[in-house]
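Support request from a user on the community tier.

User writes: "When I paste my structure tokens into the form, the page sometimes reloads and wipes my input. The last time it worked, I copied everything first. Here is what I submitted, just in case something in the input itself triggers the reload:"
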């Protein structure tokens, strides 16, 4: 019989714990929770394992402070680092989290070089780039989660505005995961009906749509402001699990994520949020969609912001090339 897939979660904080719970509930595989904090991953793993009998899932969970335990992982989801506090931008985390990516990248390189790696640590586009550099894994096996979450936020707001099931609302948010992210109104639909048509049909107004686009861009900060300590974790974890599942089950889902783009969108070898196909081959394809002039201008601005963050990483660690 086939062994269960092994899912390694690097970082057992708010998102890491939620990832472990979701992976177990969905029986995606056995879970190893790793953290440098002693006791936290062990405690969360045991607590979730003890939910197994009531929920009825079959999955083994282990908490650890030893990278050797992630050995042979099929998927690694990385949340190690620090989150934002109110008033902070994602970019303020760069210095601290770059050091964390170095340690995590080495841990993955040595122990789980065949894994599909999904980075969540912020600032996302720069951290996934650094993690790929430090781990040395193939580019198609390292990606970042942001677009699925940003699109989910957009879809949620739209489904409330239209009073329709969110199952029928599709949306696309591309670009870097920051204030310059690009919600693509033209590619966002209710069961295939594009948002501009829905304005003409009187379902909403341009003003309301503009406000929803802005709320989507500020979606992370809205939660940070409400929570008061820490950032969003339920929706970020759920979004990363959707990506892990696409890989483990070879679903070939079309999902926006931070992927290595080399050629598509006129870009030369950089990580940024684009539509991708995720299957057993990891990031199997980058989908080079056509953008309108104003969309392209927003995307270009976002790309420049990401390039600036990557430059900042290189300044901190001269070994990054
Ligand atoms: P938090 O609950 O603080 O968990 C982070 C964990 O990382 C803690 O348990 C730390 O002990 C652990 N850690 C720190 N350094 C190391 C290390 N070197 N090795 C292993 N573990 C370490 O944060 P969180 O889970 O709420 O958020 C995690 C990250 O995700 C933050 O950087 C957030 O900014 C980011 N985040 C990204 C998104 C995206 O959409 C991209 C959304 C929400 C949060």
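"...and here is what came back when it finally went through:"
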């Amino acid at each position: 019989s086939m062994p269960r897939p092994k899912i390694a979660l690097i970082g057992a904080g708010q998102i890491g714990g939620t990832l472990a719970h979701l992976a177990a509930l969905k029986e995606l595989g056995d879970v190893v929770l790793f953290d440098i904090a002693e006791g936290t991953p062990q405690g969360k793993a045991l607590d979730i394992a003890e939910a197994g009998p009531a929920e009825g899932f079959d999955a083994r969970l282990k908490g650890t402070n030893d990278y050797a335990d992630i050995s042979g992982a099929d998927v690694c989801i990385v949340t190690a680092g620090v989150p934002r506090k109110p008033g902070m931008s994602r970019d303020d985390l760069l210095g601290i989290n770059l050091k964390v990516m170095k340690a995590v990248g080495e841990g993955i390189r040595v122990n789980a070089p065949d894994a599909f790696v999904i980075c969540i640590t912020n600032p996302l586009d720069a951290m996934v780039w650094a993690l790929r550099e430090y781990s040395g894994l193939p580019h198609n096996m390292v990606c970042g989660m942001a677009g699925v979450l940003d699109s989910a936020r957009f879809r949620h707001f739209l489904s409330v505005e239209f009073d329709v099931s969110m199952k029928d609302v599709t949306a696309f948010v591309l670009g870097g995961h920051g204030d310059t992210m690009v919600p693509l109104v033209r590619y966002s639909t209710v069961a295939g009906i594009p948002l501009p048509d829905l304005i003409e049909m009187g379902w909403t107004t341009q003003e309301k749509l503009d406000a929803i686009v802005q709320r989507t861009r500020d979606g992370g900060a809205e939660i940070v402001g409400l929570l008061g300590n820490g950032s969003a974790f339920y929706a970020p974890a759920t979004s990363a699990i959707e990506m892990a599942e696409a890989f483990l089950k070879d679903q070939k889902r079309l999902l926006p994520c931070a992927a290595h783009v080399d050629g598509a969108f006129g870009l030369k070898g950089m990580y940024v949020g684009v539509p991708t196909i995720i299957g057993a081959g990891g990031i199997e394809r980058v989908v080079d969609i056509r953008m309108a002039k104003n969309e392209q201008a927003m995307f270009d601005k976002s790309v420049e912001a990401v390039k600036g963050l990557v430059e900042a990483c290189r300044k901190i660690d001269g070994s990054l090339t």
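Agent notes: The reload is a front-end session timeout and is unrelated to the input. The longest strand covers residues 270-279. Residues 10-16, 35-37, 40, 79-84, 93, 97, 100, 103-104, 120-122, 124, 145-146, 149, 177, 230-233, 236 surround 3-acetylpyridine adenine dinucleotide (CB under 6 Å). Escalated to web team.
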